Structure formats: C-alpha cells, structure tokens
Amino acid sequence: MQLEDFPKVSEYMSKLPPVSPSTPLKDVAKHFKKYKIPIVAVTDNTNVILGAIYISTLIKPFIPDFIDYIDNFGFISNLGALEHKIFSGEMSALFLAQDVMDTNYPSIEETDSTVKALFAMHREKVTGLIVKKGNLYRGIIVRCDLLEFLYGTNK
Fold first, then answer.
1. pLDDT grade for 49, boundaries at 50, 70 and 90
2. β-sheet bridge partners, residue 136
3. Per-domain residue ranges of the chain
4. Dihedral (Cα; 58, 64, 68, 74), 10-degree rounding
5. What is the reported pLDDT for 90?
6. Do 101 and 52 meet the contact criterion of CB atoms below 8 Å apart?
7. Among 6, 70, 94, 129, which is most buried by a count of CB atoms within 10 Å?
8. Do residues 97 and 43 make contact, with C-beta atoms less than 8 angstroms apart?
9. pLDDT in tens, 67-87
10. Which string of DSSP letters, residue by residue, matches 103-115?
C-alpha cells in the first residue's frame, strides 16, 4: 500500500455548519445538542476559521471550583440557592460565540491521514478536531468517526 492510498480525514469527517462570532451562547448550545459533537468551529462569512468552542467551555462556568476538592459528593442531593443562580440561564443571554471561542485550537488538514487525526486527538487530549483546508473550514472529525475507520463500523 502506498502512502497516498491511506484513508484521508476528508473521507471520515462530518461536514457540519459552523457558527458565526455573533451567535448567542444559547444557540451555540443548541448546535452542540443538535449535532451531538464536542467541538464547533467559529467562522466569518467567507468560511475563514476564527476559532473553536469545545462543549466543555460551555459547561465549565456552571461547575463551581470547590467541586474539585470534594472526593465524594454523593451525600449532596442538591446545591440549593446555588443551583438557582447557576442555572438561571442569564449567561447564555449575555455572551456570544466570540466571547468564549478559543483561537488556539487543535486542527487537521482534510488531506492528512486518518491515523494522524487519531494521534492528534490522543496527544491533544481532545475528542474532536476542526478540519480545514488552509484557513478555511471544511468540517470536524470526532472519535466516533475514527471508529468507522478503525473497526469498519459503517460496513
């Protein structure tokens, strides 16, 4: 098998729509839910990638810092007033995609090998990568896409 015969990222990636910098976080959250993905690209109107948002970025503000210091919080059934304040929905109305997007995000070229995507996700400790051609957005590739490559789950 020649190097050029190895499967490319473009064969396994998902061509999902990006969001714009002015997209409210509530709509970004809907995007994550609709497509069940771990990462969303933020692009301008010419499809140039401006940044990326991981689902963990949207979730982290709702997790109090002290949770990391509790070994076992099974005894806590609710957080009382803190739950109301955290989950009131105010944050999603105040912020836009551009406010939380990361401009330093892991990505891969659509012509790179699928194995390179696997190694990149492992090394970066992420579950998805932005797929690009130069600085233009092409789609995303996630771990589940790699299962198709590794195990032939689509055959």
1. very high
2. 48, 133
3. 3-151
4. -100
5. 60
6. yes
7. 129
8. no
9. 777 787 677 777 665 555 555
10. SS--EEETTSBHH
What residue type is 100 in one-letter code? V
Distance in angstroms (rounded) separating the CA atoms of residues 18 and 39: 10
Residue 43 CB partners (closer than 8 Å, separation 6+): 18, 19, 20, 49, 50, 137
DSSP letter at 6? S
Enumerate residues 6+ apart whose C-beta is below 8 A from 124.
Answer: 106
Q: Which two tokens stand for residue 36?
A: 């069940």
Distance CA 36, CA 83 (A): 25
Is the pLDDT at 58 greater than 90? The verdict is: no
Q: What is the pLDDT of residues 7-16, one digit of tens each?
A: 999 999 999 9
Q: Which of 141, 155, 150, 151 is nearest to 38 (CA)?
A: 141
Domain spanning 3-151, CATH class = alpha beta
Scored b (16 or more CB within 10 A) or e, 73-106 reads eeeeeeeeeeeeeeeeeeeeeebbbbebbeeebb
The partner residues of 39 in beta bridges, in order of sequence, read: 54
pLDDT tens column, 123-134 = 999 999 999 999
